[in-house]
Amino acid sequence: MSIKPKRKAIRKVMMSIYLVISALILGVGIYAGYIYYKADAAIQRVAAPKLADDPIDYVKKESIQPMTFLLAGVDSRDGGGGVMNTDVLMLVSFNPQTQSASLLSLPRDLLLKPKSLPAHKSNYYYAYYYIKDKSEAIPNTKRFFSDLLGFPIDHMVVLNFDALRQTVDALGGLQIDVDMDMKYNDSADGTHIDLKKGLQTLNGQQVLDYVRYRKSNQGTRESSDFARNDRQQQVIKQIIEKLGDFQGISQWGNILDIIGENVKSDIPESDLQQWVYNFPKIKPNQIRSLQLESSWKSPYVYVNKEDLQQALIDLADEAGIRSEISFKWQTIGVLE
């Protein structure tokens, strides 16, 4: 007489388990769909604007090809006066097939002497094009540097410094061996740098201070642009390593929000989708920093001609485009 009630109880328990499992599966599916929605929304904001007559291209490429970038970092903080000069200007060559990349920082004070524009520091020209027509600033700046250096640049990516600060916080900070005590205060733009020398975990604002530090008004040693370039590359490498540890798109939620709000590029949306969804497979495991001998002769930086030539060759070799380089030394401030 007691068997039927036991069977009913077992069925109720099993039904409850099935309902819980079904709810979990449904919840996971909804969350995954939400993350992919966020990814697509962020990608649309970062990607090159679509033109009305652009063909719709949903064809997935068989493989992701080697490419070159011009990476620019601008300071658009409140109190910064709206200046769009580039504090970071970097050439990047990336080969997803070998999972390797090369980085070359261009000094922000490097003298450039284009034929069609006035001679200025290298950090001037994105701001020039942005003020002239912000909707065309990225393609015009990319074309300018490509023609000036005689080096084919596939894409340009512009990020403001909030992207760095927020990304580092989302990743739980970075472990940095700070090379010197750094102190600098400027109430006008809200800069308050106070870092101690030594190995430590820095939050987003501290990492931003670390890569931007140039001079002191608090008795600590000043920093050269060359040391800043090394710090910027060090930070980029750590961020890429941490992002590469993400398992699946679900961990990208906060990062995608940050990227969508703070990054602009001329990269097609379909390419960005493929890169983001395949990042763990293609992210560079080897990142090489290319060095330039440089000298400061107020108010400009001048670079060693042979160093720059070799660096551009190395970048081209990474992307398989050596034959397309044509050097134009008369447009660049080089050491005599």
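The record above closes out task 2.4. Task 2.5 opens with a second protein, given below.
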Amino acid sequence: MDGKHMQIGEVAARTELSLRTIRHYEETGLVIPSARSQGGFRLYTEADVARLMVIRRMKPLGFTLEQMRDLLEATDRLDAGTTLETDEREALLQRVRSYQQAATEQVEKLRVQLARAEDFAATLGARLEQNAPAG
């Protein structure tokens, strides 16, 4: 990270999240701007953007804000660079594994839903073709 700070508008563009959503995640404590400008504007770093991307990816998989907070806490502690006791490290890794498993299961459910939706759209398309005026 080069220490470059971004204002919320740039972060919103990069993450494809609305300003309102980013502010909501700040209010709930999921992401805290790394700094504030002299004028009081929120300033974010690449690490903040990465954190928002984790949140953005979890949301469509049905994870709650509390689950997002729990996963981010676990990964923050693993990434902190401090020495962890073996038991604590394994407990944190197990938390991350459980979220990975839940995400994989949800992705599979979404694949099934998508396949059904594509089949439905194809059925409608075939019906329209079948009933199109000869021409």
